[in-house]
Design brief:
single chain; alpha+beta; Beta-Lactamase; five-stranded antiparallel beta sheet; 5 strands; globular
């Protein structure tokens, strides 16, 4: 399946009472995508299953946030994050994501579960400038690794300057 990487600039929405749900294996390949996810992202189940979850990665989403997210969940921590995703047709949609690891009977992480809700508009107005700052840093570098290596210290520095942990920042925005 060829992917059209063009962006439309059109925002898509879903209802406040809906939840976008997906599950991935430990490598980030989608093993489950609910109907809401499929409808909002404009993909069929067949197009999503087995694909990397970054199939919906929007280029306006800082790589360092995903690096932070994966580092946290792979060590057993849950993560809450504001994320802008890209639809199959180039539209975009914002979510407030809650990502958790899933364990087997031996206490080993075997998959990840993500539930995404409609984000608070006021929180988005506060997070967008931070994401723009991080993207400005990332755009100076060529490879994804160079990008997140440059922007992650800026994210940590921002948190330190605010005197907040990442979780405290996210939940301050929710208040």
């Amino acid at each position: 399946m060829a992917r059209d990487w063009s962006l439309t600039g059109n925002e898509r929405f879903f209802d406040h009472d809906e939840i976008i749900v997906s599950k991935t294996d430990t490598k980030g390949r989608i093993t489950y995508a609910n109907e809401v996810f499929q409808r909002v992202a404009l993909y069929t189940e067949e197009e999503l299953l087995g694909k990397s979850h970054n199939i919906v990665r929007h280029p306006d989403m800082p790589r360092c946030v995903f690096k932070f997210l994966w580092d946290r969940i792979s060590t057993g921590h849950e993560v809450f994050a504001y994320v802008v995703n890209r639809c199959k047709n180039g539209d975009y949609y914002w979510v407030f994501a809650h990502v958790t690891p899933t364990y087997n009977e031996h206490g080993r992480i075997v998959s990840y579960h993500s539930s995404r809700r409609v984000p608070d508009a006021g929180a988005l107005e506060q997070i967008k400038p931070l994401y723009r700052e991080l993207l400005d840093i990332e755009q100076r570098y060529r490879t994804p690794r160079e990008q997140w290596e440059a922007s992650l210290p800026a994210l940590v520095g921002k948190l330190e300057s605010l005197g907040l942990s990442y979780d405290e920042l996210i939940f301050t925005l929710c208040a």
